[in-house]
């Protein structure tokens, strides 16, 4: 029997991606035989799951669900766009999106909710789908909006199936007017958000560090100017930043002659009551995920033993 050293455990871990304790148990069960230990882990389903869980899942779908005064959006990732077009995957995303309406924007809460028609929680059901479909998948994030009286409207861009695509948007509109009118305008406004990707609702909602960075850039561009001139330059520059990046100040994409704020006001009058844009959410598939730039030819050569 080979001595089960720390180095041997580490080698098995690097080879399989399985945790140290499981690797130690596998080596103990197979008298330190490395290949037998790999087979032991595979038989337990550990090596297979671990290998999949280390692969980057940057594709998938963004799902959206609304119910009157509330709405939710969720990102469920897969490794390839091919799986995102899989009917089973899409059905799973649709159910998770509906569940997200009751998750209060908490991803952790969503993962522990019971998946419909299954004995599993969402996280466990997704893990089961990983084994079934053969790709790493994950419920990455969710967000939710609600209003006391009004409508939470939605829009999905690059729609792959009803309620899911590459970009999902929610807009929360508060008002007591005609709900059909508000919903119709809300969808148009959600399309605007998908197109322009605003930083915040208004200048007061922009994170302080973002404003500070913009001010620093303006100061660097205009270095050497007198302090009183610099103050005006920065104020003017931040005002322009607000018009370009703050939703209420942006030119409305469906009619560039008016701002979004004016469009909201006009929509409120048309609906029969004052209308207030309370919040928005824009979720784009794969935002912030670093994808590895693979060399496909090299991968094929390696698989065929030529690399």
What is the CATH class name of the largest domain?
A: Alpha Beta
The strands making up the biggest β-sheet line up spatially as 3-2-1-5
Helix content: 40-55%
Quote the distance from N terminus to C terminus: 35 Å
How would you characterize the largest beta sheet? 4 strands, antiparallel
Label the structural class.
alpha+beta
Q: How many helices?
A: 13
Which fold does the CATH topology of the largest domain refer to? Answer: Tetrahydropterin Synthase, Chain A
- Which residues form runs of ≥5 with pLDDT under 50? 293-297, 299-307
CA radius of gyration is 26 Å
Quaternary assembly = single chain
Order of helices and strands: HHHHEEHHHHEEEEHHHEEHEH
Could you tell me the strand content as a percent range?
15-25%
Q: What is the CATH architecture term of the largest domain? A: 2-Layer Sandwich
CATH H-level name of the largest domain... which superfamily?
Answer: Elongation factor Ts, dimerisation domain
How many domain units? Answer: 3
Concise summary:
The protein is an alpha+beta fold. The protein has 13 helices and 9 strands.
